[in-house]
Amino acid sequence: MNTALPLQVALVEDDPPLRYATLQALRLEGVEVIAFPDARAALGWLDADYPGVVVSDVRMPGMDGIAFFAALREIDADLPVILTTGHGDIAMAVDAMKNGAADFLTKPYASADLIRAVRGASERRALALENRRLRAEAGRSAGSAIPGTSPAAERLRAVIEGVARSEIDVVLTGPHGTGKSHAAQAIHDLSPRRARPFIAVDAGVLAHEDAELLLFGRDPAAGAAGGGLSRTGLVERANGGTLFLDAIAAASPVLTARLLALVETRQVLPIGASHARRLNLRIIIARLGDDAGQRDPLWHRLGAVQIAFPALSERREDVPEIFRLFVSRHARALDLPAPAIGEAQWSHVLSHDWPGNLHELSGYARAFVLGLDPAGVQPHAMAGQRPLQQIVAEFERTVLEDALRQCGGDVARLQAMLQTPRKTIYDKLAKYDLKPSRYR
After folding, report:
1. Is 137 left (phi over 0), alpha (psi -120 to 50) or beta?
2. What phi, psi does 371 have (nearest 5°)?
3. Do residues 274 and 367 share a domain?
4. What tens digit of pLDDT does each residue of 366-423 get?
5. Is there a domain that residue 3 lies in?
6. Backbone region of residue 246 per phi and psi (left: phi > 0; alpha: psi in -120 to 50; beta: other values)
7. What are the backbone angles phi and psi of residue 347, rounded to the nearest 5°?
8. pTM of this prediction exceeds 0.90
9. Residue 204 lies in a domain
10. Is residue 181 located within the same domain as residue 248?
């Protein structure tokens, strides 16, 4: 059974008899058609999400087909447009095709030729929309792993998206709590292996007394002989997908040696097995930036891309946005309303150094949602070790960001809300690189 969606066409034709005849010919072929008598009516209806094809006459009163095509390019450059022309307009249609039109048909044209052109353009439209959807998902996945608008956050997202498309192994370095595990998941989710397993091995597994069994499994023959059960190890479960080794410094020397062999050979030897099994793995390793090389010998054996994650104190401009994100997430998870963030909370968020990075900030956001706000009983934590001018500037930026969100990026409303002269508003927005368009 064919489950493909029906073809969709927006037909623009000013000649009523021809418009009706073309509409009927398309519908007889199972095409969903919406017809318009002129270009301006169609422009009021079409948008960048339209999944179909536009078929338009060139010679029309008011806005002609060429101007209509140019307007559609402004709406969505990927929207396919098929132009129908008289003999005198062929040169004009050819120029339009050079500028991106999908096709043109010379009148009078056969219905079969129109259907063929529509089918080809529809396939290209479906592919363009699917690629757009995948890019949007990629952006959301990377954005969720690395929230923030600082240059460091944007650079990390770009690197993650680029690395994910390849098959190369990856080493993530940085202090504890900087988002390395979320980045590993994002790399897998954005990769060609996204439909295959993502297996994370953390310090709890590596330091477990049965770590070798958990990782490498037990061969069925060995299980029967030793009275134990056969077991597929975590490493083998990742076959075809991604194996993420987190905090590998926790592994014992014996286990480290076995992991080194896995990294170099991509083979696993379950307990009691007579032959190693070859695996198809992408390996991602996370390590603390200050781990000594002798305690963490795996990463340099990979020949991998290395991505360094900065501490939260090195991208302080992202802290307000991340805090808002954590408050929203915890409120949803706890089924509680997100409380208003007051001056005391912002003072704490902006002045504290967050040595625990994202983990610590997330914990504070959860306590705040639950009404267990430690900032109210720790005024000494607000002092910090930074100049007052810097703390005030960060607070001012946060106030502007909150107001921009409430105003939807409308500068006139922002000026009225903050009761501040328009020139001062623009000076402040420029100072903190806050673009109102981001909040509309």
Report:
1. alpha
2. 85, 15
3. no
4. 888 888 765 554 433 333 455 666 666 767 777 787 778 777 778 878 887 788 887 7
5. no
6. beta
7. -60, -45
8. no
9. yes
10. yes
